[in-house]
Sequence to fold (170 residues):
Amino acid sequence: MNKEAVMTHQIDEFHSNGNDILVLGIGNYLMGDEGVGVHFINRIDSSKFPNKISFIDGGTGGFTLIPYIENHRKVIIVDATMDGKEDGTITLLKPKFSKDFPIALSGHNFGLKDMVEILTLFETMPEIYLFTITISKMEPMFMELSPKVDAAIENVTEKIIQLTLELKNN
Fold:
C-alpha cells in the first residue's frame, strides 16, 4: 500500500462545522488562574468575531481535542502559563513543533506537546497561534481568577478578534 492511500486526510464537517478557524480555551476551571482559557471561552461574545469560527471550551480534554484541532486550518489557543512574568502578561507564540511550546505551560504541558506530535506524525497539523496568560499559582478547588489574570481576558479577547479578522482577510 502506498502512503497516500493510507494517510489521506479529509476535513471532517462534524468537528469543524465547515469553519476554517478554531478558537480553543483550555485549562482546569477548578484550579483558579489555571482555568483562564476556559473562563475566556465562556465569556466570548461571538457576535464580535467574523462569521464561520468555531469556539470550544477544551477544558482538560487532552487527546479528545485532536479531531477538532486537525479539522481546522488555523487554531487559536488560550492557555495559562507559569513563565515567571507578571500575572496577566499575554504572550503570542506560533509553535510549529512540540519543542516550540513553552516548558512552563501550567497544567497540561504534556498533553499539548503530545497532541502536536500526533498531528505532525499524521501530517494534519494546522497553523497554531498560542496566546498564553501568565499565572503565578494554581489553587485547587478554587474557581475564581485573580484580578490581573481576570483583566487579561478582555485584552486577549481584543487581540484574538483582531487576529481572526486578519486571518479571514488572508
Summary: Residues 147-169 form the longest helix (23 residues).
